[in-house]
Amino acid sequence: MSVNDHISESADRVDLAEGGSAAAPAMDDDVVPPGSINARADGGDSKLFDRSSAESNRWAVERDGQLLEAVNARFDRIEKALGATSHAVQHNHEHAMVILRDRAVAAESGVTQSLLRPIGRQIAALIDRVELEAVRKQAEPWSLLMSVVDELLDVLADFGVETIECAPGEEVDRARHRVVETLSERNGEGRELHIVERVRQGYEVGGHVLRPAEVVGEWVQG
């Protein structure tokens, strides 16, 4: 070691002893300060968060789209099912109407036949009686005619058809009697229209008038 080297080393030792500090070593360009490292780390986390948020949004949109497609598909199936059900209901309704119509026709035909058979038998028997009396020529025409009327009234009575009462002096019932002639004028209040005589027979069934009786009336003091 030369004299100069000894002098330089001694000077360095004196500086250290007096509280001085050695020059700081130069910082390498690749070395990053701690604060800079944190800044880089924070910036990287922000970018990762943004990327994760975008992926989450894209996944949510895809999921909502799939759910919407599933809902639309379900609505399509429901619509098809309702259409098929409506067609089946309409077909069943038409079929039921045809069956009911056929049953109604059959029932009406059966009722008609059940009513006509006894009427036909009784009228046929009445015709036989009239023809027999006509061949014998023993009964007077008037008595034969009245007996025929009685027989016909009995036939009607068998089916619930009754004659409407038209007793003389009875008050006229406009629902059951038709006045074809009036023997007096209605002068003053409190007068009532009464039956004088029956002109034509009337008939009713269960309180329902088939044909009103025709009568001659007269106004009397009530």
UniProtKB/TrEMBL annotation:
Alphabetical list of InterPro entries matching this protein: GrpE (IPR000740), GrpE_head (IPR009012)
Residues in coiled coil: none
UniProt source species: Gordonia mangrovi
GO terms classed as biological process: protein folding
Region Disordered: start-end pairs: 1-50
GO molecular function ontology, one term from the record: protein-folding chaperone binding
Alphabetically ordered keywords of this record: Chaperone
Compositional bias (Basic and acidic residues): 1-16
One Pfam assignment: GrpE
UniProt name for this protein: Nucleotide exchange factor GrpE
